[in-house]
Specification:
This protein is an alpha/beta fold. Among the domains are: 2-121 and 169-343, Alkaline Phosphatase, subunit A (3-Layer(aba) Sandwich); 480-543, Immunoglobulins (Immunoglobulin-like, Sandwich). Helix content is 25%, strand content 17%. Strands 5-4-6-1-7-9-2-10 form an eight-stranded mixed beta sheet, sandwiched between helices. Strands 12-13-14-15 form a four-stranded antiparallel beta sheet. Strands 19-18-21-22 form a four-stranded antiparallel beta sheet.
Length: 547
């Protein structure tokens, strides 16, 4: 706690006047998140990538090349992002909660922990998102999660549903670069409908050293680039819509991806190929803090748990103490990180337990279930031609040592010098020259693990039963409504930290945060939800003057 308070005091001292002025303006904030994609962007130094819209955006923005997700796969990563806490601290670490065969459950975070868009909504922001949720305390699709987070969630995410003058926060997921878009049957379908342009050929791509140079692998990598080009075109459409609606001058744009490439030995892993992602922050001229230069690069470490605190700070909202991140994307608002952390746990039916810490040069991985190979027959991934080629080459004994490593039992510890070995193929854990580094990184990981809760200390079946006793989803209790003779309505949740929504006369559901003034003969409905539980039945009450 003393460390936390000291950090808070330092943060307050570092926040410049321009940040306070920015918050008073209540800027619009648009977060665009592609799926399954490492830094395959021209503006991040990839000469093969065809990304004209992202390159144009980056030319007037800050690029953060050292950004890291907390997991190498979507649901745990997205849970950590939306709550700004590491996924294992809220029971969201496995891929996925819904795929656990022994007992149905969802993550049930401590009741006081809220998704940061809900905190924005509580302070008057209009919040919207696209069809993919996937927070582990929800299911994957729109409509499956707490109603309290978003004003709109669905296939047509837009700021156009807000009230006049109301600031917005939008979170748009772009799916074109997802792993499944490289599945052979999907590629055939996309080509048949003309939804993918072939802008990169297989002979143009670079094959990383942990793959053999195989035609199927080259085709998949090229297709990944083509899918990224399609995603880039959608980014361009979103940016043009902002311009057409006259919102570009008051909208901060953040673009990133939910984890690394949707390819084997990248997605699902906690090597940099799985967790290192590109991130761009665009500041319109009217909102740009002093000292921020367009077309610049900031090499400091960014974790996905830093996005939520950064957005809240931009909106002038206090960052809750429970959040693990800080406002790293707001210039000079927080002390820089020394480390980022990541984790890998169950993937479908395969149990893993890996933890990683990384600084600007070294990565340390602790395999808590050693002697398990990284490569497993995950049926979804096995649809990739690359994965099929790897299995064939492995069976034929044609992989070299660097390529075999992923298929072999893992050591308890791995240490990599990222500067000289960016692909993490030379394990230095047994190197006498790096003994001091190993000790330092091991200690940093131990300190972090001791500082946060880790539900992986509990067997998943027991965790599931703790969250959903008897395998049944608990139901949130309905709130109570009190209306006085003047028409002032107070809604009281049955549990103090339940999120409460209301609507008047059948209108849209809104997030309740303060007493309401009702018109004559109004009918008020209210409902509550705790994350991971089913929402309550709605409660109804009416107000008539003179009653």
């Amino acid at each position: 706690m003393r460390i936390r308070l000291t950090m808070a005091i330092l943060c307050l001292a570092l926040v410049p006047l321009t940040t306070n002025v920015l918050a008073q303006q209540r800027p619009n904030i648009l977060l665009i998140m592609a799926e399954d994609m490492s830094a395959r962007v021209g503006a991040f130094g990839d000469d093969v990538a065809v990304t004209p819209n992202l390159d144009r955006l980056a030319s007037t923005s800050i690029r953060y090349p050292n950004t890291f997700t907390t997991a190498g796969v979507c649901a745990p990563s997205r849970a950590a992002h939306i709550l700004a806490v590491h996924q294992m601290s809220v029971g969201a670490q496995h891929m996925r909660t819904r795929s656990f065969k022994e007992s149905a459950y969802r993550s049930v975070p401590p009741a006081h922990i809220k998704a940061y868009p809900e905190l924005l909504r509580r302070q008057g922001y209009y919040t919207f998102t696209s069809s993919k949720l996937d927070y582990q305390f929800s299911n994957t699709s729109a409509g499956s999660g707490p109603f309290s987070i978003w004003d709109y969630e669905g296939a047509q995410p837009t700021w156009q549903g807000r009230a006049e003058g109301q600031p917005f926060f939008g979170f748009v997921t772009l799916t074109q670069s997802h792993e499944r878009q490289m599945f052979p049957n999907v590629v055939v379908a996309n080509n048949a409908t003309g939804t993918r342009s072939q802008v990169v050929n297989p002979d143009e791509v670079l094959v990383p050293p942990y793959y053999p140079d195989h035609p199927a692998i080259r085709r998949d990598i090229a297709q990944h680039y083509n899918n990224i080009f399609s995603m880039d075109q959608t980014v361009g459409k979103l940016l043009r819509q902002l311009e057409d609606d006259g919102l570009a001058d008051n909208t901060i744009i953040i673009w990133t991806t939910d984890h690394g490439d949707g390819l084997p030995r990248a997605k699902r892993e906690i090597y940099d190929s799985g967790i290192k992602v590109p991130l761009i922050v665009h500041w319109p001229a009217s909102l740009k803090p002093a000292g921020v230069s367009p077309n610049s690069i900031d090499k400091k470490l960014i974790s996905f748990v830093d996005i939520g605190p950064s957005v809240l700070t931009l909106a002038g909202i206090q960052v809750p103490d429970y959040m693990h991140g800080s406002a790293q994307l707001v210039p000079n608002a927080s002390p820089e990180r020394d480390y980022i952390y990541a984790a890998k746990d169950r993937l479908d039916g395969f149990n893993f337990r890996e933890r990683a810490v990384r600084d600007g040069q070294f990565k340390y991985i602790n395999n808590l279930l050693p002697d398990k190979p990284g490569a497993t027959h995950i049926s979804y991934r096995d649809q990739l031609a690359t994965m099929q080629a790897l299995w064939q080459q492995q069976a034929a004994g044609k992989l070299n040592a660097a390529q075999r490593f992923w298929f072999e039992p893992r050591p308890a510890e791995e240490l990599y010098d990222i500067v000289v070995d960016p692909h993490e193929i030379n394990n230095l854990a047994d190197s006498a020259e790096q003994a001091a580094t190993l000790t330092r990184m091991r200690s940093a990981l131990t300190d972090w693990r001791g500082a946060i809760a880790d539900y992986s200390e509990t067997a998943e079946l027991q965790m599931a039963k703790d969250f959903w006793p008897d395998g049944e989803q608990p139901v949130t209790q309905a709130p109570r409504i009190s209306i006085n003779t003047a028409g002032t309505a107070i809604i009281v949740p049955s549990a103090a930290n339940d999120s409460v929504g209301y609507r008047v006369n059948g209108g849209p559901w809104r997030l309740y945060s303060k007493p309401l003034s009702l018109p004559k003969n109004a009918i008020l409905e209210a409902k509550s939800v705790r994350y991971g539980w089913a929402e309550s039945q709605s409660t109804r009450a009416s107000h008539s003057l003179g009653d």
